[in-house]
Amino acid sequence: MSAAGHNIHLIDTEALGSGPSRIRPPFEPGARVIYRGWMLTHGEYMNLAAAVERAGGFCIALPDDYLATHHLPNWYPIVKDYTPETVFLDTGADLASELKRLGWEKFFVKDYVKSLKTSVGSIIEDPEQIEIVVSEMERYRGFIEGGLCIRRVEDFIAGSERRYFVLNRKPYATESGATIPEPAISRSRQVSA
After folding, report:
1. Residue 126 carries which DSSP code?
2. Which DSSP category does 179 fall into?
3. Is the bond preceding residue 25 a cis peptide, omega within 30 degrees?
4. Nearest-angstrom CA–CA distance, 66 and 161
C-alpha cells in the first residue's frame, strides 16, 4: 500500500468491540480511509468509523455500506445467478427439517459472514449434523453473526474461482491487469459501496 503512495495507519481492532480505539500515526485532516484487516462485525465497524471520524478522517465505506456488502443476504440477490443456491435460516428454526425439505445432497453451512471448520466440517451431507455445526460455531466463535446461510454444494472446476472487489461501484481484479468479465462489471454497478 505504501509503495502505491497510500498512508498506512494502525488501529487496535480488538478494542472496537467495546468502543474507541487508538489510531497511529494520526491522520491528516479529512483523510479518506479504507479498512484492510480482519472481518469486523457491524458493531465493530461502526466503532471503527466513529474512531476514524474522531481522529479527523472518514471511512469511504459507511457502516450501512459495509453491512450491505458484508452480510451474504444483502448481496446475494445481486449475484444469485452466478453463485450457489442459498437459503437463509434463523438459528431458532427446526434446522434439520429445513435441510431435509431442501433435498440437496450436500449443504455448506456458514453464518451471514463466514464458515467455521467444525468437527464434522462446514459441508455436511446428513441434515442432522446441522445441530453440531451450529453448536460448535457458537462455542468456538462465541456467536452466530446474523443468522445461517445454507448453500447448495456444487462441483466447480478446480482453480476456476475468481474474486473481484468493488469500490465506488467499480470492480477490481486481484491480479493487476486482469480482464474483468461483464457479469462482474454489471453487478458492481448494483453494489452500494
Report:
1. S
2. P
3. yes
4. 23
